[in-house]
């Protein structure tokens, strides 16, 4: 029966694509992905007035939104990641930043919305190359098929209603842990009214002693870090290693986030 269900889901998805529509993992049609230009800015929207991603047209590689910089404090755990997985392409803020500044890292990005991928050039996202691959697939299925692969895994998948159901299950969080290489770290954007259920599931998958949640000072987002090895202590050597791995242009953007997450690590270790 499980095989039949999978076959039916694939058939439904195929028929939806033929009709010019895409479905999420629950069979719900995905909303259209819209590009909006306003002044110097370009935004991705699923609903009018609801911005999924934003960039400056004259600085497409800049990390405009606070939580995107906080998530990249995952470099405190893995200053020189060989392979980074990213769930959710959106406007590609982190993809562009990492592709430009972390020249030794391979990037594998999964996005379930073909309309979002179709806008990648409008957002200045580079074409696939030896270091970058963007895949159209369900994020949960993608992660489950890649055990032990990533030094850093960034989870920032959203639809028009918030965190998709497929990225909010105990199985998904267990698969995220399994997808990490030894010593790997997950950074997850939690933009929701109550992050505690998501934090509980992460703690069940990774262990409460391998979990750190950092709130954004100017936003409602929280960023959860979860890891498989030892946590950095947040002291000078840890921060220095992350800073040394970054070119100056990247460090100018990330230094405050590195220091803030390092301070949270120090408080945690007391």
What does this structure look like?
This protein is of the alpha/beta class. The chain has one domain: 3-Layer(aba) Sandwich (Rossmann fold), CATH 3.40.50.150. It is built from nine helices and ten strands. The strands form two sheets. It has a seven-stranded mixed beta sheet, with helices on both faces. A three-stranded antiparallel beta sheet has the order 1-2-3, with no helix packed on it. Helix 8 packs antiparallel against helix 9. The longest helix is centred in the C-terminal third of the chain and has 22 residues.
What's the level 1 CATH class?
A: Alpha Beta
Major sheet: 7 strands, mixed
**Can you name the CATH architecture?**
3-Layer(aba) Sandwich
- Spatial separation of the terminal alpha carbons: 52 Å
The whole-angstrom Rg is: 18 Å
**Low-confidence regions:** 11-21
DSSP strand tally: 10
Overall mean pLDDT stands at: 85
The number of domains: 1
Number of discrete helical segments: 9
Q: What is the CATH superfamily label?
A: Vaccinia Virus protein VP39
What is the percentage of strand-forming residues? 15-25%
Strand order of the largest sheet: 6-5-4-7-8-10-9
Q: The CATH topology, please?
A: Rossmann fold
Inertia-based shape: globular
Taken in chain order, the helices and strands follow as: HEEEHEHEHEHEHEHEEHH
Class per helix and strand makeup? alpha/beta
Question: What is the helix content?
Answer: 25-40%
């Amino acid at each position: 029966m499980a095989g039949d269900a999978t076959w039916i889901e694939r058939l439904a998805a195929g028929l939806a694509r033929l009709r010019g529509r895409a479905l999420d993992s629950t069979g719900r049609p995905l909303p259209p992905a819209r590009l909006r230009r306003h002044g110097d800015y370009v935004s991705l929207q699923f609903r009018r007035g609801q911005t999924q991603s934003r960039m400056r047209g004259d600085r497409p590689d800049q990390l405009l939104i606070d939580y995107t910089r906080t998530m990249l404090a995952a470099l405190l755990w893995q200053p020189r990641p060989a392979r980074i997985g990213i769930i959710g392409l959106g406007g590609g803020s982190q993809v562009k930043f990492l592709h430009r500044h972390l020249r030794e890292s391979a990037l594998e990005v999964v996005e379930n919305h073909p309309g979002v991928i179709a806008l990648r050039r409008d957002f200045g996202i580079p074409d696939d190359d030896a270091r970058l691959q963007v895949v159209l697939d369900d994020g949960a299925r993608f992660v489950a098929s890649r055990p032990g692969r990533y030094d850093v895994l960034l989870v920032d998948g959203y639809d028009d209603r918030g965190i998709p159901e497929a990225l909010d299950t105990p199985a998904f969080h267990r698969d995220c842990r399994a997808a990490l290489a030894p010593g790997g770290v997950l950074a997850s954007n939690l933009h929701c009214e109550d992050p505690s259920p998501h934090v509980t599931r992460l703690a069940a998958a990774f262990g409460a002693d391998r979990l750190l949640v950092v709130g954004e000072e100017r936003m409602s987002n929280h960023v959860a870090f979860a890891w498989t090895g030892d946590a950095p202590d947040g002291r000078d050597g840890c921060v220095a290693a992350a800073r040394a791995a970054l070119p100056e242009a990247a460090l100018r953007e990330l230094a405050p986030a590195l220091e803030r997450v390092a301070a949270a690590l120090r408080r945690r270790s007391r």
